[in-house]
Amino acid sequence: MSTPSALYPLPSVLERVIQQERDLLILSIDQQEWDLLLQVVQRQNVRGAQEYHVLLRRLWLFEYRDERGCWFGINPVLAESEIFKSWQKSSIAVSQPVWYTHL
What we know:
Layout: H1 4-7, H2 10-27, H3 31-43, H4 48-57, E1 61-66, E2 69-74, H5 76-79, H6 82-90
Antiparallel strand pairs: 1-2
């Protein structure tokens, strides 16, 4: 008799869960919101309460803080999307992963 872990190896189950979460998030973002998200990622700055609430409350963007200050990064699940990867390849302004960029 096979064990559950033999039937569904953990990495493939985990990968499927991540893909499903990514796909659900992508479905919730329209083109105007993608444009806003990519602008914020590029400039590393959220302008005003409207942008902040739209992007962070929907978990499309994360705010990080440490002793050096705060910075913003796209949700790592969305960073795996073809939309983001395509934008990242075409954008010369993004020279390193955005979640490591400090203001």
